[in-house]
Amino acid sequence: MTQSITEVFADAFKTTFPLKSSPLVDCITNPVTIESMANALLYIDAKPVMADLPEEFPELFTQIDALLLNLGHISPERKDSLLAAGRYAAETHKPAVVDLVGVAATQLRYDIGQQLLQNHPNVIKGNISEVRRFAGLKSTGRGVDGSQLDQSVTALAELTKALQELTERFPNTTFLATGETDLVVSAKGQWRLENGVPQLDRFTGTGDIVGALTAALLGIGLSNDEAVVLTVSYFNCCAEVAAAQNTAGGIASFREKTLDQLSLLADQADWVKMVKGEAL
Ligand SMILES: Nc1ncnc2c1ncn2[C@@H]1O[C@H](COP(=O)(O)OP(=O)(O)OP(=O)(O)O)[C@@H](O)[C@H]1O
Ligand SMILES: Cc1ncsc1CCO
Ligand SMILES: [Mg+2]
């Protein structure tokens, strides 16, 4: 008998939402979704700061609770600040999340992702196609988007095995691959998460928000696995509620309703009953 995700992470599901303190998260991220990300953090009662100049890190890192490194828009300056912040987080023992945006598309981003992995960040995430490329598998992702072809049962099994091998060298990192099914792999186990709706693939920044919210939950002391599982489940349940409310609306209305739920669903104690997922 496989164990359900709410049984495995019962304490975290019971106690995390609504947040009891406001973690401060520094996000070094892309200009496409930076505003959505800052607001999503505020909606769950976390605090964003979007500081990326390395000169600021010594002062800033005494204040922040967690760091989010998103590869979504690389410039020479942002490349330097991502790498410097990744090293600084390791030195100062701040929890860090790396979002592999676009790693399926270019070698340059793949190389930055691999460099950031050497700091043993708490979480490395991306859509399924980005994580496949990162794990050395064939990927059919296009640009920053994941591909349906990478979602087959065989492809997911292949990715699980490749990530398990990576956790042998990086036992302190949890890997998250998102899509219709979300795959979580760490040295402690493997889990499959099944919430969400297809419309989540139709507005930008859903994955970026998942990265930032994961950093926030690390910032309040959740384990790597707990932070990933709670974030994806909560965000995807928000989207399910939004989709049910949005019968006559388009994707822009769905987006607004999903973001709105980030501040609302936490107060519905029984949201956890919506959660679907199991240990593999
Ligand atoms: N078809 C789908 N069905 C259910 N949930 C989905 C689907 N597609 C994406 N999601 C959910 O949406 C969130 C973002 O996943 P996705 O793989 O689209 O990230 P992404 O490609 O990095 O997004 P973005 O580039 O917009 O930031 C995850 O929580 C994932 O579970
Ligand atoms: C960075 C970026 N480029 C196009 S959309 C987007 C946000 C998804 O990550
Ligand atoms: Mg993404």
From TrEMBL:
HAMAP family for this protein: Thz_kinase
UniProt entry tagged with the keyword Cell membrane: no
InterPro entries noted in UniProt: Hyethyz_kinase, Ribokinase-like
Protein EC: 2.7.1.50
Cofactor: Mg(2+)
Segments traversing the membrane: none
Residues annotated as binding substrate: 50, 205
UniProt keyword annotations, A-Z: ATP-binding, Kinase, Magnesium, Metal-binding, Nucleotide-binding, Thiamine biosynthesis, Transferase
CDD domains for the chain: THZ_kinase
Binding residues for ATP: 125, 178
GO molecular function: kinase activity
Pathway: Cofactor biosynthesis; thiamine diphosphate biosynthesis; 4-methyl-5-(2-phosphoethyl)-thiazole from 5-(2-hydroxyethyl)-4-methylthiazole: step 1/1
The protein's name in its UniProt record: Hydroxyethylthiazole kinase
Function of the molecule: Catalyzes the phosphorylation of the hydroxyl group of 4-methyl-5-beta-hydroxyethylthiazole (THZ).
Catalytic activity: 5-(2-hydroxyethyl)-4-methylthiazole + ATP = 4-methyl-5-(2-phosphooxyethyl)-thiazole + ADP + H(+)
Any Pfam family hit: HK
The keyword Magnesium belongs to this UniProt entry's keyword annotation: yes
SUPFAM superfamilies in the record: Ribokinase-like (SSF53613)
Gene3D superfamilies linked: 3.40.1190.20
Family classification: Belongs to the Thz kinase family.
